[in-house]
Amino acid sequence: MTDDRWVAPAVLLAVDLVILTLRRSRLHVLLVERGVEPYRGASALPGGFLRHPEEDLTAAAHRELSEEANLDAETLRLEQLGVYGEPGRDPRGRVVSVAYLAIAPRLPEPTAGTDAADARWQPVDRVLSGELELAFDHRRIVADGVERARVTLEHSAIATAFCGPIFTITELQEVYEAVWGIPLDPRNFYRKVQKTDGFIVPVGSARKAATGRPARLFKAGPRAVLYPPMVRPAESSSTEEQ
Amino acid sequence: MTDDRWVAPAVLLAVDLVILTLRRSRLHVLLVERGVEPYRGASALPGGFLRHPEEDLTAAAHRELSEEANLDAETLRLEQLGVYGEPGRDPRGRVVSVAYLAIAPRLPEPTAGTDAADARWQPVDRVLSGELELAFDHRRIVADGVERARVTLEHSAIATAFCGPIFTITELQEVYEAVWGIPLDPRNFYRKVQKTDGFIVPVGSARKAATGRPARLFKAGPRAVLYPPMVRPAESSSTEEQ
DNA sequence: TAGCTTTTTGTCAATCTGACAGAAATAGCG
DNA sequence: CGCTATTTCTGTCAGATTGACAAAAAGCTA
């Protein structure tokens, strides 16, 4: 951070939000329909410019979330995902965008806010496959956010945040399956989760279910970082070997 | 990324660089002595403002690196570390800084460039302990960079980049020990590295050493992502349990 | 040749993983 | 009430991995 005698050029700073949740056992991302140009009518991540030059970035992120999707942003823990500042990514000029990621429990259907014509949950598959096109470079941002979520699930107990306050082990497994996009063995998952110390704690030996054997209920444990981590089965080598 | 009819406020955008290397088995970070206000004379990370509004962020990072430290930046793979945009972090006004991280082999002693009065390697310990004070929030950025490097070492083969093109397993171990800050068992390390497929490949059964048994030589293997990862021994639980 | 140092090869018990069998608990149905 | 379907939970078992440690191998030096 050196400075110049030269006047430093200013750029437009924006925040974009990748809000992930689980609906019907599928990973969904919150999208808005743009109400203004450019990309008017297209789907995009919620977000927007800083309101004033002194606005804090996370504050701006929370503000945009409530403005555009009427979601109670206070309860979401926003994690910085990255900066997207490639010249030309926005037709209006140089816009640098800071992306934030949040992983959320089943959230209510959002209602359109002031800036966006509409706000709704869309399956990430539709976005990643390209079936649903997004404005700007938002598809890339979603992809990065999903990958981050996958890694985060391995090392942190955040998966419990996808569930309600009380959940069964099967429900927790469905979170992992949905985010990782692969099926897991229920018995091994059960064992692993149970003996990962501090991950989940049993809550009143209650029960549940509609058709099978009643499942025990748990709540999130005190540990935030999982050690050893949940290991995601190998899929393919990043670089071919030999 | 919604826009306003309101004129969006512009902020000053800067890049900061955390360049890590190994010198005498200790992790060092590249620092410059600031030649201008604010914090004139204090140590700081190399970096600076965008030169013009259309400059690419990574291009700016590479430019600053060569300007301030005369390092051949082309060979370094810069990885985005995060955004530091807290209001008030820079006395000149609202400055948002994008931090980049690079992990590098033994680099030459840098020479001061145009903007910085001096550029040199400093042990990260001295920075993290607070013994050496840095300008702005750069100590925090260094801390984040070191932690990122530690995690990266677990999952990627980047550790080989700290060594020269040809190295011994002991040299590779010293990289892990320096970055992780803990000692490792040579025999178990040897075994683990050897059977992590594609990590390192033996190069001509040459030898080396001055005092003990000659060590075999290796070069970086084709695999960039390590699976299974190198596991860093547990240190302490992030959240107390029970 | 003996001693020192460092690298390399083993050993062993404990733990973890992946695959799978089968018991337990409930609802629905004839 | 007994049977079946379904889901949850408890085991088992072989193979791989880990951490701790012993000891051989290969040089250099005295």
TrEMBL record, chains A, B:
It is an enzyme of class 3 (hydrolase). InterPro entries: NUDIX_hydrolase-like_dom_sf, NUDIX_hydrolase_dom, WH-like_DNA-bd_sf, WH_DNA-bd_sf, WHD_NrtR. Residues 10-148 form the Nudix hydrolase domain. It comes from the Bacteria. Keywords: Hydrolase. GO terms for molecular function: 8-oxo-7,8-dihydrodeoxyguanosine triphosphate pyrophosphatase activity. SUPFAM superfamilies: Nudix (SSF55811), Winged helix' DNA-binding domain (SSF46785). Its EC number is 3.6.1.55. Pfam families: NUDIX, WHD_NrtR. This is 8-oxo-dGTP diphosphatase. It comes from Streptosporangium sandarakinum.
